Amino acid sequence: MTTETINFDKLKEFPGLSPAAFQHPLDVQAVGGIRQVPLLGVLLKAISGSVWERQMWLSQISSAVRLGPNQGRSVYDKFVKAATILDIPELPAIYISNRYEVNAYAFGIEKYQITLYSGLVDALSEEELLAVIGHELGHIKCDHMLYKTMAFILRLLGTNMLYSLLPAGTGMLASISLQLSLLHWERMAEFSCDRASLVVVQDESVVASALTKLAGGSQKLLPEIHLDSILQQAQEYEDAGDNLLENIFKVNMMLFQTHPFPIVRAKEIMEWAKSEQYQNILNGNYVRGASTAEVLPEPTLLSCPNCRQLNGTKSPFCLACGADLKQARLVCARCQIKVFPNWQKCPGCGAQLIP
After folding, report:
1. Which residue among 127, 136, 186, 268 is the active-site one?
2. Most C-beta atoms within 10 A of its C-beta, which of 123, 155, 170, 207?
3. pTM for this entry
4. Beta bridge partners of 71
């Protein structure tokens, strides 16, 4: 980590910020997919309660350093500032692990905690570290923590635990469905948190640079890595899909990934930085005060033709970017597939569309 300092006074804060102001529509859609997985409730019941959090807490206090106002002040101040910008009043615990990897993660069901690896702290600039902290806080802001912790526990203990919880004969089918749904959602959730990261640092090149370092890894080569070349590389990856075989390769590569490829994420955040949705946030014109689910309680919603943000059916303009919603697509609030006004039920998930 370099020794330059950040002028916190230059960073705008967004009181009352709702995750609906920036949450990626593919994240919202993927949550709907998880909720359709058979026997999800059995697993939710099994991991709820304090046992898993207690275990992680014991692990952290025995092998990592918990930061605070008088412990790791330079990092803790960034953490407090990022939480203030995103309007997260209740701070989770934050730890520094001695694992020398360029990585960080968030964990928790009722009591949240964020862990930064020492390799990450050493590899990133001060601004890039602020961006990563903002990303991890984005998981908390977007209400990701229950499903994120579920995915973490499944990876930690494997599918045998799931088999033991489910009725005989259903374990394998439910396990495959749940794991694939969780993996897909985890990848989509990262796009939302990259946006939270940008809302915090308010400089897309910083977020993209941090993602580039996640991709490159080698500290020796980091000064020689250039963002323009990374974005060109991302474009080449997106363009490689003109035939069936290349598309099969892409699907196969992503199937068991918990994160989208960093190079793709860098390009995605550079594009979102140009959007009207992001500019509106910077200008103070954003959705306030509620979660995405609370902002959008209706069975059907309007998908903005400009930024794909979900809006209530009575909204004349997009809550996020201000676009006219006359040509917006009507979608199911649960799974976000296109529906029509006279349909009683969603053909995708079976949700009741007309009360």
Report:
1. 136
2. 207
3. 0.75
4. 68
